[in-house]
Amino acid sequence: MIELKDVSAAFQGHSVLEHCSLLVPDGGHTAVMGPSGSGKTTLLRLIAGQLAPDQGSVTVSHGRISYMYQEPRLLPWLTAEENVNLVLSDKPETMGTARQWLAAVGLADAMKKHPAELSGGMRQRVSLARALAYDGDLFLLDEPLSSLDEAMAAELLDLLKQYTQGKSMIFVTHSPEQAKVLGGEIYRMHDKTLERII
Known about the structure:
The protein has helices spanning 40-48, 80-85, 95-104, 120-134, 150-163, 176-182; strands spanning 2-11, 14-24, 29-33, 55-60, 65-68, 138-142, 168-172, 185-190, 193-196. By secondary structure, it is of the alpha/beta class. The protein has a 6-stranded mixed beta sheet with strand order 5-6-7-3-8-9, with helices on both faces. A 3-stranded antiparallel beta sheet has the order 2-1-4. The relative contact order is 0.22.
């Protein structure tokens, strides 16, 4: 379960979130929408424990969190398969699993490439493969499909929906269509707080 009660947070002296409340039951999927700079990433960081609220409380009952940042955050000196394998064991015996996840996101031909050799969309897919490979109890995904074309985004959204069945997920997106496909509740960041749409 994830529960935020009357949470407010400031970043570098500027108020970002004010009196936000949210409840995500175990296994629930929740989409959060809103314009850039509205506080969506701050919300995820609070849930992940990377930030502490200035007011209110954040309760998260999940042990393992698969966090996909808005930027890929890949290690440039490692190949795509090595970047994914880092969250498994960083040992040769788990490299096969890393390759399976890269193939699942359509990167079977790019496993040996370094991040500098990949397009922005490909780097984003490596990051998604890494989050899926980590296999958390809770998935925090910050605009995971933003750099992808419509067809690829739809394919990976289907993969996400299937794989996270029974797992909790908060999915940040600008796309109402993606939010609806995931099912579950949809919230919008508005005036520094959360409004439930569905």
